[in-house]
Specification:
mainly alpha; Rna Polymerase Sigma Factor, Chain: A
């Protein structure tokens, strides 16, 4: 059975009552997208799987707190993103943030390779970024966090967030520039 067969409200009601079938339907409906989010942050499949598992445990534990404000997918994605950040913090204890030149000195990405290559190929290149740069790139580009929000969440300065984003962009431009498209 799929989500479209029972409807989101019925599935949510089942999940709130700890119905395993409803939980399985929710998981199957969102797991693939959320795994992609986990992989963007983790950079390796085994860690992404751990993050996904932990995220859905939190989703099921907190599903009663979801008040239908905004999309269910957005609510789940927020849990997955926060779990990924927490997991990476635990794994790395301290994330090394390297200062780069001023973020203002980095040109906008106008590389035609970005237009030619697909999203999956771009994400493969993003996975190659250093942990700190990859995390900030994902938070800013994929999840839409401002540099101030990133700084608050990661306990760093806004300038560090901006410089890591700049660093990520520079590295990506070099990686993609060296590809034979």
């Amino acid at each position: 059975m799929a989500l479209k067969d029972i409807g989101e409200e019925n599935m949510l009601a089942g999940c709130r009552n700890d119905n395993r079938r409803s939980q399985e339907i929710l998981y199957r409906h969102f797991a693939k997208k959320m795994y992609a989010v986990c992989l963007c942050y983790a950079g390796e499949r085994s860690l992404a799987q751990d993050i996904l598992q932990e995220s859905f445990i939190k989703v099921f534990k907190n599903i009663k707190q979801y008040k239908n404000d905004g999309s269910l997918e957005g609510w789940i994605r927020r849990i997955v993103t926060n779990t990924a950040i927490d997991h990476i913090r635990k794994k790395k204890k301290t994330i090394e943030y390297l200062e780069t030149d001023s973020h203002d000195s980095v040109p906008c990405i106008h590389n035609p390779a970005f237009v030619i290559m697909g999203f999956e190929e771009l994400m493969k290149q993003v996975e190659r970024l250093p942990d700190s740069a990859r995390m900030i790139f994902n938070l800013h580009v994929l999840d839409g966090y401002s540099h101030k929000e990133i700084a608050d969440q990661l306990n760093i300065t806004e300038g560090t967030s901006k410089s890591q984003f700049s660093r990520a962009r520079k590295i990506l431009m070099n990686l993609i520039g060296n590809m034979n498209l």
